């Protein structure tokens, strides 16, 4: 299936450099493919929810994995 949706969010120059460096270090051809991969990874989502709960004291976030 072709990719037809776009997601947009803003980051600082420093954040972008860190993301770009991480994607290159892990062998991804593009920042998009790197972000797509980690955001659909269930372990990433579990860790995100755990961190969110710790930071906010609100329990689990509603971020869902791509199941």
Plain-language structure description:
By secondary structure, the chain is an all-alpha fold. It has a domain at about 15-55. It contains 3 helices and no strands. Helix 1 packs across helix 2. The longest helix has 15 residues, at about 40-55.
Any key phrases for this structure?
67 residues, mainly alpha, 3 helices, globular
Biggest beta-sheet profile: none
Broad structural category:
mainly alpha
Radius of gyration: 14 Å
Distance separating the two termini:
16 Å
Shape label:
globular
Number of helices: 3
Elements, N to C (H/E): HHH
**Strand composition percent:** under 5%
Helix content: 55-70%
Rounded mean pLDDT score: 84
What is the count of β-strands? 0
Low-confidence stretches: none
What's the layout of helices and strands?
Elements: H1 13-25, H2 31-39, H3 42-56
Helix pairs in contact: 1-2
Q: What's a concise summary of this model?
A:
The chain is an all-alpha fold and 67 residues long. The chain is built from three helices and no strands.
């Amino acid at each position: 299936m072709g990719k037809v949706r776009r997601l947009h969010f803003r980051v600082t120059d420093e954040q972008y450099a860190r993301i770009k460096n991480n994607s290159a270090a892990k062998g991804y051809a593009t920042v998009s493919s790197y972000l797509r991969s980690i955001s659909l990874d269930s372990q990433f989502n579990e860790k995100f929810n755990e961190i969110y709960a710790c930071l906010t004291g609100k329990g689990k976030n509603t971020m869902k994995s791509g199941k």
